[in-house]
Amino acid sequence: MSNLNLHADVCVVGGGPAGTLLGYLLAQNGVSTIIIERTSGVSREFRGEHINGDTEAILREHELFDKIEELGLLRMSKVEYFAGKDIVKTILPANDEDHVGIHVPQSNLLSAIIKESEQYNHFQILYNSTVTGLIEDDNGFYAGVHAIKDGQEIEITSKIIVGADGRYSTVRKHANILTEQRKHGYDVLWAKIPAPQGWEPTTRMVFVDGHQLALFTQTGGRIQIGWNIEEGAFPSLKKGDLQLFLEPLVNSFPELEDIVLRNIQSWKDFVCLKVVSSCSETWVKDGLVIIGDAAHTMTPTGAIGINCGLLDAHVLAPIVTRALLENNTSAQYLKQFEKNRKVRINEQQEMQIKKEESFSEIFTQLELV
Length: 369
Prior knowledge:
Blueprint: E1 4-13, H1 17-28, E2 33-36, E3 50-51, H2 53-61, H3 65-71, E4 74-75, E5 78-83, E6 86-91, E7 102-103, H4 106-117, E8 123-126, E9 129-136, E10 142-149, E11 152-163, H5 170-174, E12 179-183, E13 186-194, E14 202-208, E15 211-218, E16 222-230, H6 234-237, H7 242-252, H8 257-263, E17 271-273, E18 276-280, E19 284-285, E20 288-290, H9 305-325, H10 331-358, H11 361-368
Parallel strand pairs: 1-2, 1-11, 2-8, 5-14, 11-20
Antiparallel strand pairs: 3-7, 4-7, 5-6, 9-10, 10-11, 12-18, 13-16, 13-17, 14-15, 15-16, 19-20
Helix pairs in contact: 1-4, 1-9, 3-4, 9-10
């Protein structure tokens, strides 16, 4: 089987939210773009799916929000903090809004963006494709990727590579970009259950034995539940009593007891996310950029990870477009993106730490009243 050779102005590695939005914006700007995605489609499990007001504004600006809403999304009516069965604090929408965040299934988000992108002949997405190496030209600029698609070796030459391939980024690894990781002392166990009849679309936070328990209402009549546990504790937890572990949840929300016991019958019904945050030493090299989790991994706190990645794409698209027009794909030129976003990301990561450290204070203050 002969190798397949392709060319585009930009090769985006990773077809998640940040990668697909960037591909769409570049295609809109007349930039030929190929997205490489290792999975076979748009299905995603236990990924960030709650968007904030800034992200909603970006999607509306680029005329994508209504397309996504047609496929399905859910507006959150409020955020509630519980101590046992008691509501300690409630966050309601601002005066001119009717929600405090939106749940958007990633499959709906990606499907809508890709459908809009495919109206451009110079846009292409390749599924079942894995990058095996990067191509450099005679001047040391990155100029494409080697990959395997459905068992066939392919070569994609490009003027710019964008790594949007997540926290374990292959692009970052092959570009020899160092990243500093920070542990936060906890991991998260995720599970999904059906929502009972009349369950209001909210985000609900509970303080349990010094840790956070979060319930996120989702489209399709589902609830995603996240248990914060001590870092590395899952193997020992699995040796214990599952029903005992579930007790705080059903005690706080008795209406969920039957549903929880029917749908979480084994430790295998959980997905364990190892929680780290990270920030790479640089986000650019000559002919190459990394964005989203590849450049800066966020923790689950505040559910801002997907929002940060989408904002990266929004900021990067015009910079890449100008770089191509000016025939300047140097790291020095592309550094505009990093300068624009890195300070804000650092601020948000520090904000996450402060929120994690102060979460219990909401409930301590209740005891003092």
